[in-house]
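Let us work through a complete example step by step.
Step 1: write down the sequence.
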Amino acid sequence: MSIRLYLSLVRFPHTIFALPFAVMSACLAAQGFPDWRTLLWIGVAMVAARSAAMAWNRLVDRHVDARNPRTAGREIPAGKLRPAAVLVFTIAMSGLFVLAAGMLNRTALVLSPAVLAVLLGYSYAKRFTALCHFWLGAALGLSPLGAWVAVVGDRAWSTCGVPLLLGAAVLLWTAGFDILYACQDVDVDRREGLHSIPRALGIAGSLRLSSALHALMVALLVLVGSMAGLGIVYGAGIVVVAALLAYEHWIVTPRDLSKLNVAFFTVNGYVSLLFMVFTLLDLFVRRGP
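Step 2: predict the structure and record it as tokens.
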């Protein structure tokens, strides 16, 4: 089976959302670049965990996806990949994640099953709660926490202030943009009996809540910078993030959802990448490589 189908199944380029936050957290924990081995296994763990979660989500949602015109062309409902093959892929990626955690340190290994439970459990959240967007946020918010543990091991418990705040910021950011993205499926959610913020609050109310969550995210990033001792370059990164999020909310309105893909994929990709660049620049300019 073509590897392209599996890369498409898990939307591999979207790894860019969480990976930069993991890299910046690892560098903050190490006060510089961690050794190449640690960075390598962090990358493997991130890709494997996200691939397992996305594949499982596609498998669990395959029947709903088949009845949704927007998603009917996905690999499983379109017949391009068999459910059994996707299940095997999910198990393989889960195993690779646990292996990567074990290669990092014992603390990461012990925590890896709980992380997988959060990641795979998200696929069921929309079936019983409109807070599913926050569950997805928590799943992505684990990335800076996991990277911190990967670098400091069992010392994470006494030094977890920065990664906890950074993880909370990622949670709010992710929940905010996922609420935006879910606005296009509100009719499908009603028909299928699925829960979401847009179904509960309507489009206008959902956009207001998304804006509030992103404002809170920016506030948390300020706290991260203060706690980590970062300076003006990091502050400039926060300004860039705030401007990008403001643009995201400017182009998506209750009357016009046509630019949702731009807001969701393009703008948020720039948010994570540029914020990582500014954070690392500040770290290395102030402390040296």
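Step 3: interpret the result. The chain has twelve helices and no strands.
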